[in-house]
């Protein structure tokens, strides 16, 4: 079994408490980082090429580098919205090891010159938010947060901000709007959040899993990190497996681990008596793979080449007993519900497609319906302010293309 | 009678507002508090929150109507939220919803006559490894079947 980075402490009972975390070597990374120059940390982070674990895969170091050196407050927003269907990894990190995330937050903030960080967590995770708040309060008590952290002269405040049920708020600019106290409608980019973000100030937005990798990168170095996974795409991923497998759950494995192995070896294979039909490899927004397409390394580039995406590394396993029309129904229901309504193609398109699919599921569909779905989804793709439009169109188009015969047989 | 926060809650509100450089940013935390205190968010509560934050009530309304967790109507003592997304529906969420409908004699979106239960269908709640799953208020319940649902509901007073 490969060495764990993020889940190494998950078996320990009380590691969510600061004393136990420190016993396990916790906060050593913060101590080390605060003795380095911010530029040295940035250099190491760029070398590590830690790609964003939220879905987009943008390298964290490069993102931080975009923050202009201006005389304005800067902010860190931790994206803990975790709304992508199939995704539950950040919940595990925050509940089992909140201090690892806090270390990542402190190091990032020190590197970029941030003194105020907000953890934007989905509203449903109330218990997790409470755990984070306890961890934050412990960190203040021990001097890892607040004024003059460990006598370094560096100040940082962290607080938890709970969302209230909106998938769109996982999109970074919608998250900013929501945090500012508005409806979660995305912003037009540019300007990008790095220059004009929260409260009109330079802002870094990183996912929970991304930030949680940072302490180990600081302790062990970029080379150690890139030595895991693939040269261009280092480290591990927490793969969340759900659906028709024997052992659904999280599996931390090197990036590039074969999807077939994740399903068959780690997640215990198909549920008893079930046969594989399709896999959604990176959260619901990722185009579907057919059963014969799962012999594939789980890294950003390999999945792009297979016309899908690694996204949040949430793997949803579908069996032959499940109708793809039902899958399509769940997919289109979700996006029509979660479209924020700002862009017409997405607002009208997602609900129109959902209505057609529901009609098809009632046995009242026609061949033209499938063509209409493809036409409508194609007209959402690339024509909206934020990626939700693409996220809705991509799985729909892939199901319509790869499972057209099956859909037709249900007409 | 218009709603009012207790002195203790007002202190909590002051602490929350102090976290942000702009007061309006405290709107979601305050709405969570409002819902916790009064059960739902009435137009009067919207005015109360607007007054505290120095914004117009319509700005509060704009936010309240955007987020699914904020209830504008009273709900039952126990809010049962069944996940109807993909991983859960693959593993039988629809049948379990039918079972709950029958058991509670209500449809999704409705509250039982005794005001004990409200049933809702929700999108992914981030517990797919325990599919099919649901939340009752803020408690997660996973790996559900009819028997488990019976047991959970029987344990609620």
Query: What is the H/E order of chain B?
Result: HHHHEHHEEEH
Average pLDDT metric of chain A? 96
The rounded Rg of chain A comes to 21 Å
In percent terms, what proportion of residues of chain A is strand? 5-15%
**Overall structural domain count of chain B:** 2
Please count the beta strands of chain B (DSSP E, at least 2 residues each): 4
CATH architecture of the largest domain in chain B: 3-Layer(aba) Sandwich
Individual helix count of chain B: 7
Query: Strand pairing plus helix content of chain B: what structural class?
Result: alpha+beta
Oligomeric state of this protein: heterodimer
Tell me which CATH architecture of the largest domain in chain A applies here. 3-Layer(aba) Sandwich
- Based on CA atoms alone, the radius of gyration of chain B comes out at 18 Å
Query: Any idea of the CATH topology of the largest domain in chain B?
Result: Glutaredoxin
